[in-house]
Amino acid sequence: MGVGVVAETILYFSVFTPPGSGVIRTGPLGAVPYSTWLHGLAYAGLAVTLAYALQDRPWRDRTVLIVVFVGAVGYGGSIELLQSTLAARTAGFGDLLVNAIGAAVAAVSWRVLTRWVRFYRLRRVTDIEQPIQ
């Protein structure tokens, strides 16, 4: 469900003009355009939610990384193709490249994080056991 919500949010803001469009020209540090930051963060968020959704699969780590990366970049490519058919939007290879970089950084970061973090399914917060001292 989380992956669907993130994907739908990306689709919405990729098809329609986002709020504040044209007001902010550069992102943090003033070196990269605001839209580039949004692309990178959006597809990093998609990759993280996809990785979380797949984290309990019995797949090898490399397989999960590839599925997450290809899934996020494939979705980004389909959005770019959709944007190329819209008069109010433009599609570009640069956007697709930024999407891929965001997805790759997120997928690798997720893999590094999961070496130290363990996930549990809980029905209630009170189900968490206290560590033995």
Explain what you see.
This protein is mostly helical and 133 residues long. It starts with a helix and ends in a 20-residue tail after the last helix. It has helices at residues 2-15, 34-54, 61-84, 93-113. The relative contact order is 0.15. It is elongated. The protein has four helices and no strands. Helix content is 60%, strand content 0%. It has one domain (2-14, 29-117).
Q: How are the SSEs ordered, and which strands pair?
A:
Blueprint: H1 2-15, H2 34-54, H3 61-84, H4 93-113
Helix pairs in contact: 1-2, 1-3, 2-3, 2-4, 3-4
Q: What structural category arises from helix and sheet content?
A: mainly alpha
Report the uncertain regions: none
Please provide the count of β strands: 0
Could you estimate the helical fraction of the residues in percent?
A: 55-70%
End-to-end distance, in Å?
A: 38 Å
Overall tally of structural domains: 1
Characterize the largest beta sheet: strand count, sense, and whether it forms a barrel. none
Number of separate helices: 4
Mean pLDDT: 83
Written as H for each helix and E for each strand, in order along the chain, the element string is HHHH
Please tell me how large the radius of gyration is. 17 Å
| General form | elongated
Strand content: under 5%
Kindly list the characteristics that best describe this protein.
133 residues; mainly alpha; 60% helix; elongated
Task: Summarize this entry quickly.
The protein has one domain (2-14, 29-117). 60% of the residues lie in helices and 0% in strands.
